[in-house]
Amino acid sequence: MFDDIKTGDLTWVGHETGRADLIEKLTGEATFVSDMELPGMLHTQLKKSPYARARIKGIDVSKAESMPGVRAIVTGDELDYHIGLYIVDKYILAKGEVRHYGEAVAAVAAETLEQARAAAEAIVVDYEPLPPVLHHMEALKPDAPLVHPDLGSYSYVEAVFSPKAGTNIANHMKVRKGDVEKAFAESEYIVEREYSCPSVQHVPMETHVAIAQWGKGDRVTIWTSAQSPFTVRNLFCHAFKLPHSNVRVQVPYVGGGFGGKAGIGIEPLCAVLSRKAGGKPVKFQASREEEFSLLPCRSALTYRIKTGVSAEGKIMAQHMSMYWDAGAYADYAVNVTRASGYSAAGPYEIPNAWVDAYTIYTNKPYGTAYRGFGHVEFHWAVERHMELVANAIGIDPVEFRLKNALKPGSRTLTGEEILPSTGNVVKCIEEAARRIRYGSITPEEEARQKKTGWKIGKGIAALHKAPAIPSFTATAVVLKMNEDGSVLVNLALTDYGQGTYTSVRQIIAERLGFPIDKIKVAFESDTDRDPYDWQTVASKGLVLSGNAAILAADDLLEKAYAVAAEALHANPRDLANDGDKVYIKHHPDKSVRFAAMAVGLALPNGNGIGGPLIGVGRYIAQGLTNLNKETGEGRPALDWTYGAHGIVAEVNEETGEYRVLKIASIFDVGRAINPDLVRGQAIGGMMQGLGTAVCEGYIYDENGRLLNPSFTDNKIPTAKDLPLEVECAVVETPQIDGPYGARGVAEQSMISVAPALGNAIQKATGAQLTHMPMRSEDVWRTLQNKEPIDNWITKSPVGSCRSAPEARRRDE
Amino acid sequence: MKIKLTVNGLLYERECAEHRTLLRFLREDLGLTGTKEGCGMGECGACTVILNGHAVNSCMVLAAEIDGATIRTIEGEANGPSLSDIQLAFEKNNAVQCGFCTPGMVMSVKELLAENAKPSADEVKEAIEGNFCRCTGYTQIVEAVMDLTGRPEEKGELDHV
Amino acid sequence: MPMLYEFRYLAPKSVAELTATLREHASDGKILAGGTDLIPNIRNGLQKPGFVIDIKKYDGADRISYGADGLSMGPAVTINDLLRFKDARDRYPVLCSCAHELASHQIRNRATVAGNVVNASPCSDMAPALLCLDAQAVLRSGNGERVIPFSSFFTGVKKTVLQPGEFLERILVPAASAGVTGRYLKLKRIAGHDLGIVGVLMTKRDGEIRFGVSSAAPTPVLVDTVTTKDSPDEAAAKVLASVSPISDVRGTKEYREHMIGVYARRLLAEVR
């Protein structure tokens, strides 16, 4: 859209402007759901499963019911509502069987938190423990216990997903492109390796929290710390079979989401408690421990890649098998599988490709969307694999990447042709390489190595990602002019820190030609008052809502100009505005102020014309299709954002300790609407990517109990973990249908940080890491060729490192 | 038991359970919800307030044990209707994203600057290492403090290639 | 919002009142100092004392001083009180560098030196320094006072010689240990605040070498058998002979042993 929009000489777009939400956040005045207290509000505590899998033989709430302050207790057997985003496979509370450690089996709402906790502790649950299936590869075996024996009877989105009844496979996604067998036969080299990573937590600083009030007449109001108010409403109404007009979802300030708050979560539980408590508002806030084990995480992945390469270093064929650990419920994991499946090769052209991507149920906390939507995990594999393939065939890894990168004329796995306007991954890789002086050790670095004894290595990793969205994803923006000619913006896209509202505000100011101070974006979202938005996910917010904002601005001006034309006796085409008034271009002294027209213009004789000025912009993703279920062919990508990271790391070969000396992150964002915000996204994502790379991951005992559900043993990076030098840059290949050429970059910043680090460590030491995170012990083990041990599910937790070198020449 | 606290210059007197944390006392009894809870375990720093001049995790302090103390919270940071210098520096340097860690972060910076008027970047990082931020990657927060203390040149830029 | 389990809060205003309170609540009372371990433990239900006895409220509890006997710290002296005390910084750099490695700034403002050793966690950061500096624990109860060197203070994981009704009234670091130099190497999972995977302190005084090791055995370990004549390998072997690390979520026994050896060699090589 909008390739005719001027890109030079812009007033607001492309410049730094203050964020729209700073004062309230800096003063503590911003109200989060965790801060809300409603009159008569009850507080919730849960009874949770200590088992990964068990049959619930009985729940005795008799003692708890009579305890002081208790107003409602609910258990799974009294609820018959199925919840599910793509596969409807989850109850509000476990019913009949618990499927993961930490799953809620009963809930208490009481006058105080203390009373709720005392009652929850007094509930007695009689379990019959069952053997759990914990590792996703074990869950594929024919004799594995079934996490969902009734999978065949669940409803699901049939156009897109393929669950396999009678197995633990929640989805099987396929890509079949070209003739893989023939291409392997013609390849000079074949390299096959396996890569993996464990589940991790999003760690929003505000844990999940919601308040629900089930009023008389089945009118339900929900306040929730969520990313997507309309999806919460929609799924809620489907589960409870309520008309949408009965349910109102409000989202105030949200303390971080990262995908973990993308869908529906604890809202139905609060609602059923409220209903049982006679309509009192009920609040539940997850503790940090519950955030780890009750609420969803990021799926673990095992990814096996087999690549055939020509003598000249061109990839001929690639066979890709992805095994995603859904945990106990499918949630977003089935769509992570789909999106990862069609992007599975990274930003490289694979003429002959074969992808099998599976979502696999296990008895562990369930996986969901997490910044990058699978791409952080599988790029770990792809970009380590590119390095190892290049090493195996004796070519520089960056040269190998550039040789195989997607370029105009290339076709993606699903057959989409790459155009010059799609973006420029080659430039991103080259810029990242240039900024870290890839391929050389500078005299300063040489001196540093001598001084410290630590080896310096440099690594590059590239990335791509498109928004993983339904083909018909839509949004709308409404502009309402205030009496003074300023503009209020309503949209249901949520801004939980990304800064999208600030960018949308810039776009509207630019398009209207208004001073930015005249534009206010209403922060709280409300399904009763805001126009529809599907979800705030997938780095699609700026593109879709930005386009809708342009259309809304155009609509507002068109309406204002119609009134002005009548008042000024002019043709609307002859009108322009200076932000305060509409004037006739060839008679600038003839004008009418927006303030005069905002709620209807009074003519000199008192007659009113026009009416409140409201501009509406609607935008729906264009040209996307469902993918062919057998071949993957189709068009899944609204746009592709490319990028690359370059990392300089120093490694102590004796201990496996390492430090990141420098990182350079480059993205083709199409156009940076607000450079400071882009930089904020770039660095924030980079640090989250480092957390994934360095230290984060769920560790279970062999019974499926999570051993590190807190910050004590699940560390995230602190300010002291920053690389010594951080550089960010953008390539700007305008996206023809993006607002002012922009693409999203919120997730991309986190992708491929880990493999860039892995590649740098390998360059420094030769360590062939194939599992992340890369704890210092993992690096040490790899260097020592120690027994590869996996400690992510373990009887006695021990160090982790897996490496299975299987590179071979085809003719060997 | 009866607790008297001076918070942001105002004296509060409240009846309070003996096992109440300072965090809950501030948020629930005084309605000062600017101070946040991120973990309840003293790991994340979202609940940082200044107790008798020193930054502490208010989730690990009992209201009962600090009867008579002087507390500063985020609500007392602005100068009347205007933002404080720290807040202005955060604003100018885009040091806020979701905003949940921000109140605690500002409190940690406040104590740092009270003790050390011109900290090095490493000293800033050390002062805020107890404040988790999952959004910003910390860089723009460190830059805000460097800017505020006369080193605006430490600020990085988004380069255009 | 998570909450603490209920308890009664007691704040004895004198040592006599404190000892009486401790005697009365020997079985259902817990001493509160900085609270950085006790309060999370109560929140998590790991400890459910009926009475929490604040040790900070008697006169002198937070006293830190330096005199002819050396450095004396009351039970309410926080880690940052120690770090802000000039005599400590000037005379006991080893103690301060270990203190500085402990947790985050906010925690150091609250956590006490005494609490860090009374908890007797194997990963105590203060214990290696107190062991190497010949520090002593002055324990008090209604029955009087006894002085225990830290080398005999720890008896097991989270266990000490403290008897019910008894409290750590003072930590004494002898004047003879002033000026001892050394370095503490702590292996962590991140650069920011973290519990140690292992920690190795080496101190040197008048040619005498000592090692204090944390996260390597049921208790913090003192190794005083190494001499400057030992090669780094010999030193590492002696230190390793004194420890018995386990495998847990932070690291394996194998890696811990390796790193203790590396650190011991590295530290000794620096002074040889």
Mean pLDDT figure of chain B: 97
- Give the C-level CATH assignment of the largest domain in chain A: Alpha Beta
Could you name the CATH topology of the largest domain in chain B? Ubiquitin-like (UB roll)
- CATH top level of the largest domain in chain B is Alpha Beta
Distance between the termini of chain B: 64 Å
**What is the multimeric organization of the chains shown?**
heterotrimer
Largest β-sheet summary of chain A: 8 strands, mixed
TL;DR of this structure?
The complex is a heterotrimer of chains A (812), B (161) and C (272). Chain B is an alpha+beta fold and 161 residues long.
Topology:
The complex is a heterotrimer of chains A (812), B (161) and C (272).
Chain A: H1 22-27, E1 42-48, E2 54-60, H2 62-65, E3 70-75, E4 82-83, E5 90-91, E6 97-98, E7 104-110, H3 113-122, E8 124-129, E9 169-177, H4 180-186, E10 189-197, E11 209-215, E12 219-224, H5 229-240, E13 247-251, H6 267-276, E14 282-285, H7 288-293, E15 301-309, E16 315-327, H8 333-342, E17 352-361, H9 375-393, H10 397-404, H11 425-435, H12 443-452, E18 455-465, E19 474-481, E20 487-490, H13 500-512, E21 519-521, E22 525-526, H14 541-568, E23 575-577, E24 581-584, E25 587-593, H15 594-597, E26 599-602, E27 608-612, E28 614-620, E29 641-651, E30 658-668, H16 675-694, E31 700-701, E32 725-731, H17 753-765, H18 776-784, E33 793-794, E34 808-809
Parallel strand pairs in A: 1-14, 12-13, 16-17, 20-21, 30-32, 31-33
Antiparallel strand pairs in A: 1-7, 2-6, 2-8, 3-7, 4-5, 9-17, 10-15, 10-34, 11-12, 11-14, 13-22, 15-16, 18-29, 19-20, 19-28, 23-24, 24-25, 26-27, 29-30
Chain B: E1 2-7, E2 10-15, H1 22-29, E3 48-51, E4 54-57, E5 70-72, H2 85-92, H3 102-115, H4 121-128, H5 139-148, E6 158-160
Helix pairs in contact in B: 2-5
Chain C: E1 8-10, H1 15-24, E2 29-32, H2 38-43, E3 51-54, E4 64-67, E5 70-73, H3 79-84, H4 86-91, H5 93-100, H6 105-108, H7 113-118, H8 126-132, E6 136-141, E7 144-149, E8 154-156, E9 159-160, E10 167-174, E11 181-187, E12 198-205, E13 208-214, E14 221-223, H9 232-241, H10 253-271
Parallel strand pairs in C: 1-3, 2-3
Antiparallel strand pairs in C: 4-5, 5-10, 6-7, 6-10, 8-9, 11-12, 12-13, 13-14
